């Protein structure tokens, strides 16, 4: 176990799979106590067991980030158990790609509620705790889709552009209080994200494209970027990281 983050407390949303799971493991391996938040409790328990078997410290807090009560409970349980929120990784997300003229409104709503409003509300709930501390760090997982819009991705693009704008605005409000903000913008990462795409044709295109035309990133590649940002000295604020597979155009 390394100790760069010893004594720090990190909440990771979407910790039940993919980037969130890898990030929770990587922060725990650096000594942070991690709070695992997502809907699937069984998956969170499995992640927590792995972390504790490696000598780390993990708390499972089943959370739906679209529910205000869950968000408040997540913050309250973290503070009860560990007394602080040093790192908040807002990573939970869904990517329901469709052309707008074929999109279900429910999918648009879900993307906004999980990727954007959930992230905003959890940041809002955690901020008063962070402001009582000397330092804290908010890491928001955006995407290349937060910088470049494209067909079949209007709803998803809207959420990730929103994440970038929200994060920069909050940065300006709290950076002089010792609260750092980092936007993480991954290109293609091999996770479960693509499996939930409702349009079968788009899903197949994305899955084939990822396997045939490039070596996609692994969740651990993004976890390493997050670890880099949160282990910098306090006077260094890594505001934004764009990370693509080398062979992704
Ligand atoms: P996964 O599908 O593996 O992970 C998504 C996570 O979000 C899961 O842990 C899921 O947990 C959680 N989640 C979904 N809905 C909710 C909800 N309502 N409340 C709480 N948690 C929720 O995909 P990734 O790891 O790839 O995705 C993580 C982030 O990375 C997302 O924000 C995504 O947009 C972003 N990203 C991914 C890229 C990629 O190519 N994979 C590229 C760029 C960005 P559960 O179902 O248990 O609730």
TrEMBL record:
One of its GO terms (molecular function) is oxidoreductase activity, acting on the CH-OH group of donors, NAD or NADP as acceptor. Keywords: Oxidoreductase. The keyword Transmembrane does not apply. Belongs to the short-chain dehydrogenases/reductases (SDR) family. This is Oxidoreductase. The lineage of its organism: Archaea, Methanobacteriati, Methanobacteriota, Stenosarchaea group, Halobacteria. Residues 8-192 form the Ketoreductase domain. It comes from Halonotius pteroides.
């Amino acid at each position: 176990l390394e100790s760069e983050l010893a004594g720090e407390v990190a909440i990771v949303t979407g910790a039940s799979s993919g980037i969130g799971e890898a990030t929770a493991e990587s922060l725990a391996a650096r000594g942070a106590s991690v709070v695992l938040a997502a809907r699937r409790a069984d998956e969170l328990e499995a992640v927590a067991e792995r972390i504790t078997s490696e000598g780390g410290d993990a708390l499972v807090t089943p959370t739906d980030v679209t529910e205000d009560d869950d968000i408040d409970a997540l913050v309250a349980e973290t503070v009860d158990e560990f007394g602080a929120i040093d790192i908040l990784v807002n990573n939970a997300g869904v990517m329901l790609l469709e052309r707008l003229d074929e999109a279900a409104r429910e999918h648009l709503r879900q993307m906004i509620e999980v990727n954007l409003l959930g992230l905003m509300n959890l940041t809002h709930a955690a901020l008063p705790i962070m402001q009582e501390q000397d330092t804290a760090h908010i890491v928001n997982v955006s995407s290349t889709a937060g910088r470049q819009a494209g067909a079949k991705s209007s709803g998803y693009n809207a959420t990730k552009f929103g994440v970038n704008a929200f994060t920069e605005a909050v940065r300006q409000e709290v950076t002089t209080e010792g609260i750092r903000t980092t936007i993480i913008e991954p290109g293609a990462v091999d996770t479960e994200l693509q499996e939930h795409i409702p349009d079968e044709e788009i899903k197949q295109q994305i899955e084939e494209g990822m396997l045939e035309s490039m070596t996609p990133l692994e969740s651990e590649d993004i976890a390493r970027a997050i670890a880099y940002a949160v282990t910098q000295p306090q006077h260094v604020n890594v505001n934004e990281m764009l990370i693509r597979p080398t062979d992704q155009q």
